[in-house]
Amino acid sequence: MSKKIMILPGDGIGPEIVEQAVAVLEAADRKFNLDLSFEQGLIGGASIDAHGEPLTDAQLEAAGQCDAVLLGAVGGPKWDQLEREIRPEKGLLKIRSKLGLYANLRPAILYPQLAEASSLKPEVVSGLDILIVRELTGGIYFGEPRGIRTLESGEKQGFNTYVYSESEIERIARTAFEAAQKRGGKLCSVDKANVLEVTVLWREVLDRLAPEYPDVELSHMYVDNAAMQLVRAPKQFDVMVTGNMFGDILSDAAAMLTGSIGMLPSASLNETGFGLYEPCHGSAPDIAGQGIANPLATILSAAMMLRYSLDMGEAADAIEAAVSKVLDQGLRTADIYTEGSKKVSTAEMGAAVVAAF
Amino acid sequence: MSKKIMILPGDGIGPEIVEQAVAVLEAADRKFNLDLSFEQGLIGGASIDAHGEPLTDAQLEAAGQCDAVLLGAVGGPKWDQLEREIRPEKGLLKIRSKLGLYANLRPAILYPQLAEASSLKPEVVSGLDILIVRELTGGIYFGEPRGIRTLESGEKQGFNTYVYSESEIERIARTAFEAAQKRGGKLCSVDKANVLEVTVLWREVLDRLAPEYPDVELSHMYVDNAAMQLVRAPKQFDVMVTGNMFGDILSDAAAMLTGSIGMLPSASLNETGFGLYEPCHGSAPDIAGQGIANPLATILSAAMMLRYSLDMGEAADAIEAAVSKVLDQGLRTADIYTEGSKKVSTAEMGAAVVAAF
Ligand SMILES: [Mg+2]
Ligand SMILES: [Mg+2]
User: Fold this and answer.
1) DSSP output for A343-357
2) pLDDT over threshold 90, residue A250
3) Which of these, A45, A245, A235, A287, lies nearest to A131 by C-alpha position?
4) What domain range includes position A76?
5) What does the entry list as the binding residues for substrate (chains A, B) (predicted)?
6) N or C: which end of chain A has fewer CB within 10 A?
């Protein structure tokens, strides 16, 4: 049965990099008979220019009827003066919340060919391949009550609530267990169960579910230790799962371990397996239209889409292998260029990945 | 006027390493006419053996009447079977809470001589010298309400409260501003003010106090970015200040950047400047009594004591310079030994620091 993918190029370098990712998907389609179909849509500044808002309800509905969304990036100085509610970024927040995309998958992968880019010693990070699964729609970032109140003493007090229910924990845990099944079979759950009750419940739910995934080895780690271990020996991890706030901190730290954030894809999934796929980097308006942006993070996002939303793991593996091959060939866009390698354009990089299939 | 220091050697390697630190303090006393006096006391397992509890009220009171406390380490397998309330660690928690030690100072220093120990590239971390000031008695680790409740739907929900009042923020902020004045004059406050109201108030208070410290350059950073920047370019920081939970995560990550946790001192201060000083490492019962433990973290804790509680910065500088000198001489205890250096005992290392004055 045909799988429909909504393409939302967005702003800045978005259209250029998405174009290459679509070309790679089409190549994968030809090779593996995936029966993909594509629809184009607007989000962010592009939608503001056309419709006066960063994501129309009609566009949202059309996206929701697809099997997955591939997004470039949104935003740029052109729309910075708009009031907060109709800024380009609101389009992203709207699609995430309206489609219930509670599971954020953030791989931190360091291709050995790029190991020098890291601030860590090559032997510590070369070949790093971990996946952080972050809960994205709950936890302290959304918890109530919250605010700043004035105490009887007259001084102000700020407060937020870190809260998770069993069902919220269970669904993100299942996403993580399933991701571990598709990868190395190891899942490390990160909490602060020695201090925070909300994470005591988190740990209980993970332990309760573990017997349903006998092929996954579950471990637990306190968040302060996890931050240390990511610095000390990040390759010890396969999949990590944690709440929204700890995931925010740890996934950014893990991404930085690679030294090449421009290479990293991401996914945001809901319960049905529907997902939004996008590079971790932004819309880079300063280099938009010059044809020099790095399309690899978007191409790797497309590979994640095949693996996690479309159950086409073989094609995903092939795309990732092709990316590794072009790096072996010494091809580099400007952002990852080092002396002795061959500097290529956005389109040349995309074509090289297609050719490496 | 004479300054009185309470010496609490504790358990395991505690007595051995504290003995060397006291010898260094005595040497500093002679050289700089500090007029120090010392009192010996019991904490942890040593106190349990003598009095049946990890810290007696009499000992607590005696400590509170001193100007500072120098502590070794507590705990060991001998006391692991005791019930939670009278374990050695409870002595530490008691002295911290009863004496109101709300400011935890955690330096992350990497002597260039030990740069190879880090998982980061030497050029990224060699000479690292940052200080993380962590609020220690408030925030989400202590916030109420907290617990696990059953919702009407029958499912459980865990919750904790992240809360700070203006006065709590102000006192830790002042500690951090003052520490920055004693160091490089730069203070980076870490929050998540784009999402969490409690840290919006945190940022407000820091901004309000800044004009009182015109010699300190205040900046703000979101916690996820701070975690990234610690990995990418940690030497950009001088002093960082943050709440209890973020401080827990970031100070452990920063310590691990050095690769030599056995070298790191710490301080916990209250409003009067009284402080408890101790190495970051534990009591290492496995090597206790062998005379091979590294006394440098405790010696550096003694230097912090002179700087932060006794206002004897010159003597503190001299101790730190002496430590650097013995490292230059190639002296290493077993934990930091590398080929080509000279392996020394606990007592030899202490004597070398004294001789390097
Ligand atoms: Mg973030
Ligand atoms: Mg910790």
Assistant:
1) E--HHHHHHHHHHT-
2) yes
3) A235
4) 1-101+270-357
5) 96, 106, 134, 224
6) N
Domain-located, residue A317 = yes
DSSP code of residue B336 = G
Q: Which of B156, B160, B257 to mutate to test the interface with A (most CBs of A within 10 A)?
A: B160
My answer on whether A300 and A249 are in the same domain is: no
DSSP-derived secondary structure letter, B120: B
Q: Do B212 and B332 sit in the same domain of this protein?
A: no
pLDDT in tens, B31-42: 999 999 999 999
Both A110 and A97 in one domain: the answer is no
Q: What are B71's strand-pairing partners? A: B8
Q: Looking at the domain assignment, is residue B31 inside a domain?
A: yes
If DSSP codes are grouped into helix, strand and coil, which group holds residue B332?
Answer: strand
- Residue B210 resides in a domain: yes
CB-CB neighbours of A136 under 10 Å: 23
Tally of structural domains, chain B: 2
With a cut of 0.90, is the ipTM above it?
yes
SS3 at position A200: helix
* Cross-strand partners of A123: none
Q: Using one digit for the tens of pLDDT, what is the confidence trace for B152-210?
A: 999 999 999 999 999 999 999 999 999 999 899 999 999 999 899 999 999 999 999 99
Which residues of A are tagged catalytic? 141, 192, 224, 248, 252
3-state SS class at A238: coil
Is B148 domain-assigned?
Answer: no
User: From CA A160, how far away is CA B198, in angstroms rounded?
Assistant: 6
Residue of B35, B57, B224, B328 marked active site? B224
